[in-house]
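Annotators were shown the component list below and the corresponding predicted structure, then asked to write short factual statements about the assembly.
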Amino acid sequence: MAAVHPTLQDVPPDSGALYRLLAELRATQERLRALIDTEPECVKLLDAQGRLLEMNAAGLRMIEADAAEAVLGQCVYGLLVPEHAAAFRRLTERVCRGERGTLEFELIGLKGTRRWLETHAVPFRDEGSGETRLLAITRDITERRRLAEALAESERRFRTFMDNAPAVAWIKDAALRYTYVNQAFAHYHDRSAQEMLGHDDFELFPSELASYFRAHDDEVRSSGGALQTLRKMPQPDGSTRHWLAVKFPFADAAGADGLAGFAIDVSGRVEAEDKARRYADDVRSLVSRLVQAQEAERRRVADELHDLIGQNLTALGIDLQALKHRLQSGGDLIAGPRLDAMATLVETTIDAIRGVMTDLRPAALDEFGLVPALRWHASLFSERTGIKVSTQTTGPAVRLSRDAELAVFRIVQETLTNVAKHSGAANVKVTIRYGDGVSLSVEDDGRGLANAAGASSAKLGGFGLTTMRERAEAFGGRLRIESPGRGTRVVLEMPKEGNAD
Amino acid sequence: MQISVLLLDDHAVVRDGLQALLGAQPDIRVVGSFGDSGHAMAFAAETPPDVAVLDIAMPGLDGVEAARRIHDLCPDTHILMLSMHASPEHVYQALRAGASGYVLKESAGGEVVEAVRAVHAGRRYLSEKLSARVLDEYIRERGPDHPLERLSRRELQVLKLIVEGNTSSQVGALLGLSPKSIDTYRSRMMNKLDIQDLASLVKFAIRHGVTSVE
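Structure shown to annotators:
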């Protein structure tokens, strides 16, 4: 560049040499011009008043000028957004006093496009006028600023989310030092986030807790995927609480294998669930004890009816007949009809007691098992209600345990009672399949559950059904009720485990 | 010739009533009245009665089993069951055990005399309330017994354990019973199934799925 500014002393006396020198100078100037014009950044020259003296093609594009002539000699301050104009003017004046400077500012092009620009300005002494000008290279930083703003916005959103989350959240680098913790995390450990950053668990927490965290971190790292856990965790205060945690590999700023996680204290929920489960268990065992107590009581009453009352009445009936024979042979015509009436009364009473006995505890069930007892019950049911019941059995009957058989019997009994009460059915089909355990279905041709009059959902889901379910489940069985429009089908599956003794 | 009758009922009041009622008939003579089946069996074996009147539900030995044994001991004795139970299966089981009459206790006063005469004459007698038609229908519907259904729960357990290769004392230990009772269960079971040897028992058990082939 030294050759660009030859002084007169350098010019040799002979004009041929001068001519060559001038030609060389022109060539150098043209190369420089070409260089500046192809420069992708804006190159410009301003005087101390901000007037544009020179500008390359990139600069003209930046200010959206169609030709240099349109803007040369004009003051550029008007192109700046108002709030940056003063700073730019100060820079120009400073540089023209001989200083260097840089400035980021926003400009509105002649066609209205806003751009963020960054300019690096140096003083440039004009040999001709002796004045100092501003020579500046300016680049468009609109995209860079947009990215930086987007990044800052994204960071702001991340922090707002994280700091308002009820969960504790953290990020650790490859050395398992915290590089981010949210407010909940800091608050939970009663420290500021700043205090924690750059430290690992062993530096921050008691060793028991730190070892616990570390073990989980190692698990995540060895599994290589997200790990969700619900665990009882020792607390800083020595208690234990239930935490639901998700940890996952998370590349740190340097791209190394860090990890991150969320955790939320779900002790309240876990305890409520435990409590609900305990209540449900209590209710179940209460129902089952109630059923057992009821059955025991029924059995006791049935036995009493059979062994004492039934037998005594039987004896009474027999004695009355014996007495009648004796009186008739003695020729007493008045006592005879009275004795007949008494005998009839005794007979109908025993009959009634037998009915009650069978209801309380069907003897056929204990003695002969399900199928005979169900057939008998079905025929009594038909006699009483007029609903026809057909009973079908497949497979060789296997005796289940006494209690399991009773449970099955009671479920069928309850189902038939419901059929009579609600379904309006004319026919019921009872199917008993023996195989691996026993599978039983009771199917009616009534109006179906959805249309059953008087059978509100509360009633159907009520105590009767609950007890049926409990009875089945007590022996590992399953009860299901199907009602596809017309008719209702109650299906009971009892596994072989119900087969015990 | 009077009809000799043996009474077996654990309820003294019923027994006494029956004795009084039947004893009052000129053609009937009560030759023995028992509250427990052991004595009744011994008596029957010694002097077989024409008719045995048995209560179906007795503790220790049920009336159906008593009927079966009397039927074995003295095949010429006609058996009349007395029962509180009206289920057709009860009736069916009694008839199968060898009874030829079944009288409900509520009707005993009015029917027992007639029933004793009927069975003695070789006819079937069922209480008026037990419709013969219903019973026949029931027996037809219920189909023949599955051989396994003849076995009690305990016998079934013993069968399974025996065919799986356990000795009587092993089975006894498993079920908490003496080897002697296991032998009793075993012979009763083989009797019921009409099977004479272990090989046939194993074959039977496999055929009916009591045990699987190893």
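Statements collected:
1. DSSP finds 16 helices and 15 strands in chain A.
2. Chain A touches chain B through 44 residues (CB under 8 Å).
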